[in-house]
Amino acid sequence: MRKPPADRQHKTVRDWGRVKLTCVGVFFCLAWLGLWTRAGYLQIVAGPELAQQAIRQHLASEIDKGARGEIYDRGGRLLAKSVEFEAVFVRPKEVTDPEKTVAFLAKVLHMKEQRVRKKVQSSSNMAYLSWRVGDRTAARIREAALPGVYFTKESGRFYPNGHLASQLMGFVGVGDVGLEGVEKSFDERLTGHQAKYVVQRDASGRRFFFDSQGRELADVNGHDVRLTIDSQIQFFAEEELEKAVTANNAKAGTALVVHVPTGEILAMANYPFFNPNVGRGISPRIARNHAALDVFEPGSTMKPLLVAAALQERVVRASSTFNCENGRFSFANRVIKDTHPYGVLPVNMIVRVSSNIGAAKIGLQMGAQRLYGYFQKLGFGQPTGLPISGEGKGLLRPLKSWSPLDVATQSFGQGVAVTPVQLAQAFLILANDGVYKPLRLVADPTDAQAERKPYRVFDADVCRTVQGMMREVVQEEHGTGRTARIDGLEIGGKTGTAQKAGSGGGYGNKYLGSFVAFVPAISPEYVVLVMVDEPEPSHYGGVVAAPAVRDVTLRMLSYLGRMPETVQLAKGQASGPSAAQAQTQAASVPAASDAPVELSRADKEIMEIAQSTPSGAKAVEVRSVPNFSGMPLRKAVEILMQKGIVPRLEGQGLVVSKQTPAPGAPWPGDNNAEFVLWLARPS
Questions:
Q1: Residue 379: pLDDT over 90
Q2: What's the gap between Cα 242 and its chain centre?
Q3: Looking at the keywords, is Hydrolase present (predicted)?
């Protein structure tokens, strides 16, 4: 065969390099065109929607709830605060050994196995076992490493002083909502607010906040509340009230201490106590603030108020006399009785021996209209205005329904009902030289009580006259309140023994014994009130309540550094009646002679000094050292410097924890004697 020519062979070879370059160029052009098209679509068409998706992925909202405000006493001592607790719960589906888990948790959490088993075998995804678990308990559960058992953080209310002022403080429920007491009254102020924050997060979901604390600066916490209560005086009142109730086999009791110059309540105690840290399951009857909510007939504590009104209206004079009918007075088909047969008595003796007949005759001379008017001025029949939810207004029937018998019985405290704080308010007027001054319970914020205008109810000279009569009740022979006597300190007071209404109508066989005291008797600085509900076997206020008032007063004045330097103690007597004096009281108060006189702790300390008196001595003069325990260091040093004593200080802190010499001991005989104060930091 013949081969083709060489030039023909060359023409059949193609230039593939140019084709490749062209193809690559076209591909890149199409790719760039597609990318620009896609970019245009994303920017112009789908841009707004994608921007919203980006915001949802990279920004998150954070809701923060502020802590509940704290509650303090007048001196800044903490009464209530919010803290974080650990709560333990189970996920039933993850529990691998139910019996072992139930047995262990029931033992550690002090719960019944039946209750724990019900939660462990629950069909729900999770079930709480305990909302508040202590650190040691939580550590034991963690060490056990039980499958299906978990912990979470919960915010709860903590009361560092346990039952102190429990009915006054109240407690909170689920969600930090105040349910009783101050917690309920000031719930809006105490409750923290919610704030919503916008935060950034990365691809792993970690959040980046706007400030170093993890949130924007905002005031979300609740505001604090500061009460007029002095926690130390509150403690004294509660301890002595508990003694009075238990020693007299009573059902309950109430105590109040009021500072006369300011009207501030320093103590408001109720017994039985309860621990607000265990708010669930508390009986409403025990959690109830009886001092402000419950009403009772005041009994003979009404008599000083009646006499003040009669003196103010010039119906009687201090020298006026009344025939007390030898203990039985027939009036309006009823018989009014006295505990002892008395003849003609002047007004001061009617108060001193607590004659119902004398009081009834004074009231009848006053008349219904004037008596009703003074009841209103004293605050009966209307709440005092204290910031206590559900405060009682007492019982004062309309004037048009009063009969002459009502006038007579209400004059000695039957047929009218008041709350303990109403009675304290009425006696505050008498102690404040006749000028109404509202009781106060809250120092911060300023409440509506501070804005109430004072007004005069009695003239000052009338109040001084009645204060003198109340002094006789405690200091003079045949006075019904002599068990409240503190020798060396002038105290005034009035006993009350109110018969309680029976369940079937009329009066039953239960009583309420009470005692109201002025400290000191003339121009009082403090009003102290104690009530003992249903005491047995003796029910007289001079027997069951007056000793508690005495002990509260002793401890309060010692704590405040106001104890009189000179105290007269009869041999064998400790700030209370001697055996002979007790017999005298027994003659004026039935059943009192069988009641043993219990010595308080303060009495026993002074008793040790009295026992060193030589046999046969009638009295010993004691220079009493006050109790500095719990007192600020500055105040304690000021008191000692006034005596020319420079104390030696041990420890660090600003509050006195203990002392040498002990409270109630004589002052050192010379200025070089050692006086030691041990210090502690305030709690």
A1: yes
A2: 15
A3: yes
Q: Would you say 113 and 102 are in contact if contact means Cβ atoms under 8 Å apart? A: yes
Q: Give the CATH fold of the 64-227 domain.
A: Penicillin-binding protein 2a (Domain 2) (3.90.1310)
DSSP E strand stretches across 235-386: 252-259, 264-271, 321-323, 328-331, 334-337, 344-346
pLDDT in tens, 80-118: 988 877 888 899 888 888 888 889 998 888 888 888 898
Percentage of the chain beyond pLDDT 70 is: 81
The arithmetic mean of pLDDT across residues 495-520, rounded, is 86
CA-CA distance, 414 to 506, in Å (whole number)?
12
Domain locations in the chain as residue ranges: 64-227, 232-624, 627-683
* CA 375 to the chain's CA centroid: 28
- Residues 106-123 as b/e (b if ≥16 CB within 10 A, e otherwise) read bebbeeeeeebbebbeee
- Mind listing the pLDDT tens digit for each residue in 624-678? 788 888 787 777 877 777 677 878 888 777 778 888 888 877 777 654 568 888 8
In this prediction, residue 286 carries a pLDDT of 86
**Confidence class for position 60, pLDDT limits 50, 70, 90:** low
Do 385 and 436 touch, CB atoms closer than 8 A?
no
CB distance 574 to 604 below 8 Å: yes
Q: Is 70 exceeded by the pLDDT of residue 279?
A: no
Please say whether the beta carbons of 169 and 80 come within 8 A: yes
d(C-alpha 289, C-alpha 291), whole Å: 6
Whether residue 661 is preceded by a cis peptide bond, meaning omega within 30 degrees of 0, is: yes
> How far is it, in rounded angstroms, from Cα 415 to Cα 403?
11
The end-to-end CA distance of the chain, in Å, is 123
232-624 maps to CATH 3.30.2290.10: no
Read off the pLDDT of each residue in 119-142 and give the average, rounded to a whole number.
Answer: 84
Angle at alpha carbon of residue 357, lines to 352 and 361, rounded to 5°: 105
Token pair 């120092």 in the structure block, residue = 443
Select from 69, 274, 292, 291 the least CA-distant residue to 170. Answer: 274
The residue ranking higher by pLDDT, 544 or 603, is 544
Alpha-carbon distance values, 141 to 100, 124, 153, 438, 569 (Å) = 13, 22, 15, 53, 60
C-beta of residue 305 within 8 angstroms of C-beta of residue 291: no
Cα gap 598→621, rounded to integer Å: 23
Helix, strand or coil, per DSSP, at residue 17: helix
Q: What is the DSSP letter of 42?
A: I
Query: Which residues participate in catalysis according to the annotation?
Result: 300
Indicate the length of the chain as a whole number: 683
* Residue indicated by tokens 């003339």: 522
Q: What is residue 574's DSSP assignment?
A: S
Summarize the confidence of residues 361-371 as an average pLDDT.
95
Characterize 540-553 residue by residue with b for buried, 16 or more Cβ atoms within 10 angstroms of its Cβ, and e for exposed.
bbbbbbbbbbbbbb
Strand (E) or helix (H) holding 362:
helix 356-366
Please name the residues in contact with 289: beta carbons below 8 A apart, sequence gap of 6 or more: 167, 168, 170, 180, 181, 268, 270, 388
Helix, coil or strand: residue 426: helix
CA 368 → CA 374, 399, 407, 411, distances in Å?
A: 10, 7, 6, 10
Domain 627-683 has CATH 3.30.10: yes
Residue type, 619: A
